[in-house]
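Q: Mind making up any chain with structure tokens?
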Amino acid sequence: MFELISEQALKMCAIILTAFAACCVLMPRFIVKMRTYAEQPIRDDGPQTHLKKQGTPTLGGLVLLASLFLNVLLWGNLHNVYIQALLIATAGMALLGFIDDYLKIKKKNSRGVTGKQKLFCQFSLAFFVLFWINAAQGMQATQVFIPFIGPWDIGFLYYIFGAVVIVGTSNAVNLTDGLDGLVSVPLIIANLVFTVVILGLADYALVYPVLPEITPCLVFTCATIGATLGFLWFNAPPAKIFMGDTGSMALGAALGTLAVITKHELLLALVGGVFVAEAVSDILQVGSYKLRKKRIFKMAPIHHHFEKSGWAETCVVVRFWIISVILACIGLACLQWR
């Protein structure tokens, strides 16, 4: 058993390192190219400190995703249904994000694909992915695991619930990607937690349900961790490149799909608490202004509120990282409470 665990651990470390190395090798030349073709539009109504970021290239998510996909192809089992679902969700959302980024660059403003168009495409993709997963999970496909209670089969309603999880996570991660380095660490931490979950589902019955065929998903989570670490090397303050919607929407969709595959959607809501707070703050801000013509926050998403309250950008980023670590610890502790 010890030798088996050691072999698995070595493989996981190798995947992380190769994904990190691939991103670090590809990114510098890409940054040079993008300085000419793809400058990130900066919001005029945002914090004034952001104006100095004008001219920073975007679309860094392309290199991150290229590193991710290359390592999945190198290490992964492409015949596995769950790997296929993750690749479909990630690639589909990346394409939508790329179109959004392209339109923003072309128009030289922060508006790309309209909200209605984006949601239609996102939900269409999410439903397709859910039906793809259903083929592998059978009766378990429509179950939701509730802590302290157990599995609850909600039937066809699960497809609506699952689609909301995938689309909501994609958009929440996208909203979080607003400060240098902010989104990367919460993404890495969430993928680390789901790596532990997958190990438990596959071999050790630490968590519900037991899914022996889910082990290949470890390749995807480890490749995501390594590629995101590589991107963070260049996105750390002051950022040399931004991820763009191409990367953030795709990685968010992948994380939501992982939660659906593992039947741990509620765990994602806890571990991804930073993403939830960013999305909820934006919804509340828009809703309040439409209903009362008043704003709740100085600016949404909430990381901008703290900036306008006097927090330095690096202070906001590091404190959000700390919160992510704390939530991950609580989430891992909750895995024992079935």
Summary: Residues 2-34+56-334 form one domain. The longest helix spans residues 2-37.
